[in-house]
Every structure is written in structure tokens, then in C-alpha cells.
Amino acid sequence: MATHRSLQFSLDRSSPVPLYYQLSQQLEAAIEQGALAPGSLLGNEIDLAARLGLSRPTVRQAIQSLVDKGLLVRRRGVGTQVLHSQVKRPLELSSLYDDLEAAGQQPATHVLRHVVEPAGAQVAAALGVAEGAEVVLVERLRLAHGEPMAHLRNHLPVGLLDLGGDQLAETGLYRLIRAAGITLHSARQTVGARAATAEEGERLAEPEGAPLLTMERTTYDDTGRAVEFGSHVYRASRYAFDFQLLVRP
């Protein structure tokens, strides 16, 4: 099992950036890059402080910042252990399954529901169908490394593609749409945040009231047809949206 002894750290003592922050950033990078995999032991704070020539309070502060982010946990009789890395998802037209797989997060899916139901007002407006018209609902729980990551609800027009439960459990929805010969072209997306309900907390292994990220997305094909409306909820402790902002010329 990997520990800090297998890692190399570079601390700049002449930098105005606090040493604890430099250490925490390098530890976080090691977790994100897989050098410290889930379950790895970080090791003893005293040993790490001695190895790096830092004070124990400095090392403790660095570790605590990652504990607060949910990346590390202190276990009595075990030590400080890596929980997981936070998934940082780029804001582009990709599926959560693909993003998790690309990040080495071992995605898995529990299909909760796969039914045909009447479209409510929001879904009807998004898909451009009459309210009450039949649409397909796919509801899933997406996991990474065996832990719940997100609760996904996707509505699609009836007849868009032939979906099987096994397919939905084995791969991402966008892959299935593309495999059906549909070219995904663009999407409109809204990102928000709110507190978890008791039911959501139980489903996502978070306490009631924990922060959740929300996303609603309507996806269009290359003919301008709406092919999917998604309403998703993510664990904020495990997930973040990554933005790149550009200055207008």
C-alpha cells in the first residue's frame, strides 16, 4: 500500500505561498493523479514532518485541509487514509460516465428506473413535445470506485433509440445515443447548488442538508432536435465543475 515515503515533494521556502498550502496542493495532486490511490495510507505526521523538515503543526494543517475537502480521513488505529480524489468535470458536451472513465475512477451504474411516462411541463418544454406526451425516463445512480457519485434522471423522446437495462448499466447514455447514429451537436446547461433532502442523502451517502451540485441540460443533435433532457444531482464533496473563462476581445 503506497505511503508518503514513495512520493517526492518540492517545497519552496522562499515563496510567499505558505508551506502547509504547498504541501496540501502536492498531496492533492498525488491523489488526483493516482500516486495515492483510494485506501492508501499517508503515514505518520511526525515521520512526514521529519522527512520534509517541517513543523508538525504545518503538516497537520496541510492534512486537515484535505480532510476538510473529503480527500483524506483519520482512522483510529490505522492512520490517515486516502478516501478518493474529487472529480473535476470540464464543462463540455460529454457524459459523466466518459469523464469518470477518463479520470480512472472506475464508473459503475445502478439502473433505478427505465419507464415510459407522461411528460411534465418542464420536460415537455425542453424536448419540444406536448405536455402529457409519452417520453422515456432513465433514472440511474452513478458510482465511482464503488461509492455513489450522482443521481441521474434523463428524459428522451419515445422511439429515439432502443435501450436495454443491461446496456444502461454497462456504459454511458451518450455512448448509446452515438452508437444509434445520432450526432450530438450542442446543449444548454444550468448549474446550481442546494442542500440534500433526507432521501437524497441516503441515496448518495451524505447527511441530510449536505451540499449538492445540480445540473440541468438539454442536448440537441446536428439537426437541432432536442434528444435528451437531463436533471442530475452530484455530491459536492466528490465532484466539481471545471470552468475555463476567456476575456472578450
Automatic annotation (TrEMBL):
Domain HTH gntR-type: 17-85
Keywords: DNA-binding, Transcription, Transcription regulation
Keyword DNA-binding attributed: yes
Highest taxon listed in the record's lineage: Bacteria
InterPro entries listed in its UniProt record: Bact_HTH_transcr_reg (IPR050679), Chorismate_lyase_/UTRA_dom_sf (IPR028978), Tscrpt_reg_HTH_GntR (IPR000524), UTRA (IPR011663), WH-like_DNA-bd_sf (IPR036388), WH_DNA-bd_sf (IPR036390)
PROSITE patterns cross-referenced by the UniProt entry: HTH_GNTR (PS50949)
Protein name: Myo-inositol degradation transcriptional regulator
Source organism of this protein record: Streptomyces stramineus
